[in-house]
Write a structure and sequence with these properties.
Blueprint (H helix, E strand, L loop, with lengths): L1 H11 L7 E7 H7 L7 E6 L3 E7 H9 L4 E4 L11 H14 L4 E8 L5 E7 L11 E7 L7 H16 L4 H9 E6 L4 H9 L10 E2 L2 E2 L45 H12 L4 E6 L4 E4 L11 H12 L12 E4 L10 H13 L4 E6 L8 H21 L6
Parallel strand pairs: 7-8, 7-11, 11-14, 12-13
Antiparallel strand pairs: 1-3, 1-4, 2-3, 5-6, 6-8, 9-10, 12-14
Helix pairs in contact: 1-3, 4-5, 5-11, 8-10
Bound molecules: N~2~-sulfamoyl-L-arginine and zinc ion.
Zinc ion binds next to loops.
């Protein structure tokens, strides 16, 4: 009887949608269930022994059936701490109008809901046209619910522009580096998460009655000719072809506008380093995330990633972010970093070193922690931007 119930749930889960909550399970249980549990929306790692997943009611029922112990985790943000999408866009406009000589403002493209994806270009020589050797990309908020990544990127821009005239090292950085910042890659998702469903992760493309694809599962392969790097390949439960799941990879590679806009940007500029801000787990990670394979530049990327991580203090002050190859938590296909590395290396013939920062210990921390988070992560972003000068290109 129990077997039949389990079977019914396994078949039905991908088709059902219900309310979601954040639950914490042991790492051992996570690895025990992940094969059977086809669609796991991992929120982050908690300490060394726990994994947090966003689960809907039917998935929680399945945890019960599989005798997995879990505890519910409350989201402790205060919405008012975080800017609305309109306020995010206003802040970007304001930064440009306050520093017109140092910044240029561009729209990468528009989302299906008509929201602009805004990008600030920063340079002391000519912010409109890249005339320098070093290029650095910072993007945030591929995932809608990771609100603090948006404010962290805005804090970075505000801080370097404010310090430009008084801090010689920052002036030197801004003069010698073409810095591109995209505070939200996913404005439709951010707005929906901020106003209607705080657990929302995807964008808001509507297909066949289901909303959204996970932009960080949608990039079309690592372009190195290996099957492992391919979009849509499923090794375990961390990507899905079911459109109603949080980790839906989209109907085909690069199906999402947001994915294609970022790809175009990577084609247009020769970034030395790119950083994609996500939350959470206090990690600095690098490709490949799709398999145990290492990139050709593994020595460089892992030593640089380790150095970057050593600049970002953990929230509890006990140490620094953990550096690791991205598949260490879970391998998944279609993320931005695998694509950026593979495309720049094998198609363009230059090398962009892509990193993902998984900032913080939860989604959208409360006000008291937010400014401190910005400052801690700033150290890692700034170090990375400075490092562009040491790389070829
Ligand atoms: O799953 C993701 O897209 C990222 N983590 S998050 O919790 N922010 O959703 C991590 C992607 C890194 N790549 C791999 N783990 N392969
Ligand atoms: Zn994320």
């Amino acid at each position: 009887m129990r077997r039949i119930a389990l079977f019914a749930l396994l078949v039905l889960i991908p088709l059902l949608a219900s309310s979601e909550s954040l639950v914490r399970i042991s790492k051992a249980d996570f690895y025990r269930i992940q094969d059977k549990f086809k669609e796991l929306d991992v929120a982050g790692r908690y300490g060394n022994d726990y994994i947090d997943i966003v689960a809907d009611d039917s998935q929680i029922q399945l945890l019960d059936l599989m005798m997995v112990k879990y505890s519910k985790v409350n989201r402790i943000d205060s919405k008012a701490t975080y800017p609305t999408l309109i306020q995010v866009n206003d802040s970007i406009d304001k930064l440009h109008s306050l520093y017109p000589a140092l910044t240029d403002l561009e729209t990468l493209g528009f989302t299906v809901l008509g929201n602009p994806i805004k990008m600030l270009k920063i340079n002391g020589v000519n912010p409109s046209y890249d005339q320098v050797n070093d290029e650095f990309l910072l993007m945030a908020n591929h995932h809608a619910r990771e609100w603090q990544t948006v404010t962290t990127s805005l804090f970075f821009v505000d801080s370097i522009l404010k310090s430009y005239s008084s801090n010689a090292a920052i002036k030197n950085l801004v003069d010698s580096t073409f810095i591109v910042v995209i505070p939200t890659v996913n404005p439709d998702g951010y707005n929906y998460s901020r106003t209607s469903d705080e657990w929302w992760r995807k964008n808001r493309t509507l297909r066949g009655g289901f909303y959204g694809a996970d932009i960080n599962r949608n990039y079309g392969g690592s372009c190195d000719g290996k099957r492992d790097g391919e979009w849509g390949n499923i090794y375990n439960s961390s990507t899905s072809h079911y459109p109603n799941t949080d980790i839906y990879c989209g109907p085909y590679p690069n199906s999402e506008r947001e994915t294609r806009y970022i790809q175009q940007l990577i084609k247009d500029y020769d970034f030395d380093i790119s950083i994609s801000l996500h939350s959470y787990s206090e990690l600095v990670i690098w490709p490949y995330g799709s398999s145990a394979d290492t990139v050709l530049d593994n020595e460089l990327i892992s030593s640089l990633g380790t150095r970057i991580a050593s600049k970002i203090l953990k929230q509890n002050g006990t140490g620094y972010y953990t550096p690791e190859k991205a598949d260490a938590l879970y391998p998944t296909t279609g993320d931005s970093d695998d694509w950026i590395y593979g495309y720049t290396k094998y198609v363009k013939g230059i090398t962009t070193l892509p990193f993902t920062f998984e900032v913080d210990t939860g989604f959208s921390p409360p006000e008291a922690n937010l400014d401190k988070l910005h400052r801690r992560v700033f150290a890692g972003i700034l170090y990375s931007a400075f490092f562009c000068d040491s790389l070829d290109g």
